[in-house]
Amino acid sequence: MNVYDSRIIAQILSENGYKETADKKNADVIIVNTCSVREHAEQRAIGRIGELQDLRKENPGILIGVVGCMAQNLGNSIKGADFVVGPSGYRKLPQIIVQSLESRVQSSKKKLTTHNSQSCIEQTDELYSDIFPESKDGITAFVSVMRGCDNFCSYCIVPYVRGQARSRPPEDILKEIELLSSKGIKKITLLGQSVNEYSYNGVNFPHLLRLIDGTGVPWINFTTSHPKNMSQELIDAIRDGEKICEWLHLPMQSGANEILKKMGRGYTKEKYLDWIHKTRKSIPEVSITTDILVGFPGESEKNFNETLEVIKEVRFDSAYMFKYSERPHTKAYNMKPKVPEEMRIERLEELINIQNKITREKNSELIGTTQEVLVLGKSKRGNSLYGRTRQNKVVLFNGKASPGDFIKVKIKELRGWTPYGELLSKKEPLITRINTNLPETEHLEKLQGENVA
Ligand code: SAH
Ligand code: SF4
């Protein structure tokens, strides 16, 4: 979400005559976009802002601004910031930058060593709906369909820093996607804190997906879905959508009903498992990923084991796993008893070990299959290429291909836990469903028989 917001900021500033630079030493203005979902994220941002202060020695005119959730949460108390702007204030950035410069000139006239930082942290129903940011890599792009959240899960700061949930008009979303498509973007990821809660003038999320399926972008992903807003209608929209990829990110948070209740999540373990079952039944090749939060106040050993049991039962394709972090404003902040920090770490480690083993096993199921892959670039070590499958899995391969190509890769082995294979052929985007669970030959026949691209 912040990557997308940074593109919105870049768009607003470029319309006001600013140019992006990849080298911070060339910058006149540096904007640090921050997250405050966990304390660790805030500490890292504060560390980064501290490091940037060195640039002031060489370039005393530089402006350093802090934006995003931490700006909203901590306001003017952030040290080293010339301006502070919350997630709803980005349209004012050009004006705030000018005011910051003026304030600096004023202070230097008065021979003050510091100047007052400018801020804009009022919350509005801002949607940036008319701003169409550019993709950074020219291949993939995010598109926000709604902003804010009012679920108030008891551990979560998001509703306090990003404001009320509001959905964007479908016409604007479609316009943005068509524009990206005309620029050759291959994959779009729709964003929302609880994306399947989208609702605008009678258009719900499954309906929106069906509309987007009619645009020119070959692959469409979306995140994050909230289990309490799951519906068969959504599963059907994924199943029927030719461009909608077979990937569902469905944060479970905990496998213990007692904890889910205290978290205020609005579903039980049984209801969650039912949605997993229904999704897999309708879309056998779907990959399901999740978020898990351990060490929530009051989480007993028994509760934690219940989470591990569900992890083993569901066998998620992968998971983001976190230890609970106290956040101001939230209900859980005052909940007791707190799980001691060492125990949070221990539980997180145990969970990660179990899930990582499952992720590896799930990935090894791909060995011997042929996958449709969108090429994204060179791997970190540089000796192979990488891309993603429709199930959003990273795949490494060798062979000749360019970023943005759709290719077929025969998976041979795992490297670490990443599937590695060989390029079979370049492929136009398939717009029919591929059942990756089918045996190899049948799978290829299906690919050839049904490719209507
Ligand atoms: N809107 C998404 C989540 C956004 S935050 C949803 O409802 O699923 C992303 C993840 O951060 C959450 O799923 C949760 O697992 C984690 N998280 C949120 N608040 C946290 C906290 N206080 N401590 C640790 N992790 C947290
Ligand atoms: Fe936070 Fe819950 Fe909203 Fe997700 S749904 S952003 S966890 S309050």
CATH class of the largest domain: Alpha Beta
Biggest sheet, spatial arrangement of strands: 15-16-17-19-18
Q: Please describe the biggest sheet, giving its number of strands, its sense, and whether it closes into a barrel.
A: 5 strands, mixed, barrel
Helix/strand structural class: alpha/beta
Looking at the structure, what is the overall shape?
A: globular
The span between the termini is: 31 Å
Instruction: Work out the radius of gyration.
Output: 23 Å
Q: Write the CATH homologous superfamily of the largest domain.
A: tm_1862 like domain
Number of individual domains: 3
Strand content: 15-25%
Number of strands: 19
Could you tell me the CATH topology label of the largest domain.
pyruvate-formate lyase- activating enzyme
The percent range for helix content is: 25-40%
Ranges where pLDDT stays below 50 over 5 or more residues in a row are: 431-453
Mean pLDDT: 92
Task: Please give the count of helices.
Answer: 14
CATH architecture designation of the largest domain: Alpha-Beta Horseshoe
Bound molecules: S-adenosyl-L-homocysteine, iron/sulfur cluster
In words, what does this structure look like?
The chain has 3 domains: about 1-120, Rossmann fold (3-Layer(aba) Sandwich), CATH 3.40.50.12160; about 140-360, pyruvate-formate lyase- activating enzyme (Alpha-Beta Horseshoe); about 365-453, Nucleic acid-binding proteins (OB fold (Dihydrolipoamide Acetyltransferase, E2P)). It has helices at about 1-15, 40-50, 55-60, 70-75, 95-110, 160, 170-180, 205-210, 230-240, 255-265, 270-280, 300-315, 340-365, 440-450; strands at about 30-35, 65-70, 85, 120, 140-145, 145, 165, 185-190, 200, 205, 220-225, 245-250, 285-295, 320-325, 370-380, 385-390, 395-400, 405-415, 420-425. It is α/β, with parallel strands linked by helices and about 450 residues long. α12 (about 300-315) links the parallel β13 (about 285-295) and β14 (about 320-325). α12 (about 300-315) packs parallel to α13. The strands form 6 sheets. It has a 5-stranded mixed barrel with strand order 15-16-17-19-18. The chain is built from 14 helices and 19 strands. Bound molecules: S-adenosyl-L-homocysteine and iron/sulfur cluster. Iron/sulfur cluster binds near residues 149, 152, 153 and 226. Iron/sulfur cluster binds near residues 152 and 153.
